[in-house]
Amino acid sequence: MNGRTVRTSAIKTLLLFDIDGTILNTGGAGKRAMIQAFEEVYGVKDGFRGIRMSGKTDPLILKEALLQAGLPEDGERTEKFKLRYFERLAAEIEKPNPGKILLPGIEELILYLSERSDIIPGLLTGNWRKGAALKLGHFGLFHCFRLGAFGDDSADREKLLPFALKRFKRLFDFTLPLEHVFVIGDTPRDIRSARPYGAKAVGIATGTYSADILKEEHPDFIFENLQNWGDFLKILTPGRSEIE
């Protein structure tokens, strides 16, 4: 991740982005890699059939597949599965696919944020860290994020935010007020992951959930997409609210 020196006195905002459906789509590379790895390690074909992956952490998705297949959780086999998954993902994401894209406005926004001294771009994702690095690295963006919380930290997405906050404190040696922390994602689970802690929740309707469904979770802000990312930056003004 980005090792650029930042003056801590300048930092005013922490932005924590989800990856899949918010920053990018892999064109199914992640799911194909999981299916292949599951068959290789557990001997079950199409082991994720019927399991909805959107918004869930990787360890939770694996747990549901094991339960569906009637298989026990086993730490050693889990680690083997992860290694196989990362190998398959690295191969799958390189394959040409029209569905493999950065979502509207994201590249410009992230590159802009990475040059700001007062805004720290980070990650709050259900991906295992290595998977996040492979997906974002394919598009040349992983280095733009200063810190993150990942599926390695907890299978429960609603428990991830404290890990990101601890890493922020360790990196910059001060605690940012929660009203200056924004969790940005495309699923109800992303919005809920901000709620218990008092962080701002931003819904982006670029995944499998419509803006209307995301509004049911009462995010602080909501956007159809980030094509006009200048409008997104306006929400960083203290006291501004898009949704009453």
Helix and strand arrangement:
Layout lengths: L12 E5 L6 E3 L2 H14 L15 H12 L5 H18 L7 E3 L3 H8 L5 E6 L4 H10 L9 E2 L11 H12 L8 E5 L2 H7 L5 E5 L6 H5 L5 E3 L5 H6 L10
Parallel strand pairs: 1-4, 1-6, 4-5, 6-7, 7-8
Antiparallel strand pairs: 2-3
Helix pairs in contact: 1-3, 3-5
Helix content: 25-40%
What series of H and E elements makes up the topology?
Answer: EEHHHEHEHEHEHEHEH
End-to-end gap: 36 Å
Strand order of the largest sheet: 5-4-1-6-7-8
Radius of gyration, in Å, reads 18 Å
In percent, how much strand structure appears in the residues? 5-15%
By helix and strand content, what is the structural category? alpha/beta
Mean of residue pLDDT?
Answer: 94
Number of strand segments: 8
- Helix segment count? 9
Outline type: globular
